[in-house]
Design goal:
Elements (H helix, E strand, L loop, with lengths): L14 E6 L3 E6 L5 E5 L2 H6 L12 H14 L9 E5 L5 H6 L5 E5 L3 H9 L17 E7 L8 H9 L2 E12 L19 E2 L2 H10 L6 E4 L4 E5 L1
Parallel strand pairs: 4-5, 4-6, 6-7
Antiparallel strand pairs: 1-2, 2-3, 3-8, 7-10, 9-10
């Protein structure tokens, strides 16, 4: 499914305003329940341009979790024959592990500081505009804690799915959000959040991208794992 124009959420559908101030407002899509931020000032945009100078590598528990995800994938395919891509790879912790299991690995990270750290580890980090480049396609696309930072949620997910080879696998590990958090004004905008997917939004956007779910797990800590 090709999308011609960029838009934050579902095309031709309205929204409800959840919270607003002089500089921003949170909206929820009336079609799929995606919660998203609309910035109303240049100052807020500048605040969200954060360099993660004190960024720490993934904890041992997160690395162990990633290995458990790879173990699940092995039920469906021989990983050593597949290519792997990490969308929002940070400083490359998961890519370093993936190198031991896949034929070829690449990543994308828009943050300059983290990108440089990943490249210093000898990892192949491609340019940010890869979604519009017809050259790159992969057997496995992995993303973890990335879509909160995406501005055009629907368009980005669609373009990412078009990067999957036929019979490829999409692995999405992230958090989901309640319909009404206690207070949207309390969200720390230095985190740069733009999109807060609810359960309905996750399921809807996977469905319209024709992703057949192999594993779908929503946990009590408001995190989820999707393999499709």
């Amino acid at each position: 499914m090709e999308i011609e124009n960029n838009y934050i959420c579902c095309k031709n559908y309205g929204y409800k305003k959840i919270f607003s101030s002089n500089e921003y407002e949170w909206r929820i899509c009336e079609k799929c329940d995606l919660i998203y931020l609309l910035s109303l000032s240049e100052r807020l945009d500048k605040i969200k341009e954060v360099q993660f100078d004190e960024f720490e590598e993934a904890l041992k528990s997160a690395k162990f979790e990633f290995l458990s995800i790879l173990k699940i994938l092995k039920k469906y395919s021989n990983l050593s024959h597949l290519t792997f891509f990490d969308f929002g790879c940070g400083e490359g912790s998961y890519l370093k592990i993936a190198e031991e299991h896949f034929k070829k690995v690449q990543g994308m990270e828009p943050n300059t500081f983290l990108k440089d750290r990943a490249r210093k580890k000898g990892l192949e980090i491609i340019e940010d505009n890869f979604l519009d480049n017809k050259e790159f396609h992969y057997d496995v696309i992995f993303t973890r804690n990335t879509f909160e930072y995406v501005t055009n949620f629907s368009t980005t997910l669609n373009k990412l799915m078009n990067k999957l080879n036929k019979n490829g696998y999409f692995v999405w590990r992230d958090k989901f959000y309640d319909y009404f958090p206690k207070n949207y004004s309390d969200i720390n905008f230095s985190d740069g959040f733009n999109s807060l997917p609810t359960k309905n939004a996750i399921k809807h956007h996977l469905s319209i991208n024709q992703i057949e779910l192999l594993e779908s797990r929503f946990y009590f800590d408001k995190s989820f794992l999707i393999i499709g």
